[in-house]
Amino acid sequence: MQFALPFPPVSKLSHNARLHWAQRAKLVKAARREGWALAAEAFAHAPIPDTRPLPVRFEIHAPDKRCRDLDNIISALKPYCDGIADAIGVDDAHWSHTYTHAEPIKGGCVIVTIGGEP
Question: What is the per-residue pLDDT across 47-65, written as a single tens digit (0 to 9) for each?
Answer without folding.
Answer: 988 889 999 999 999 999 9
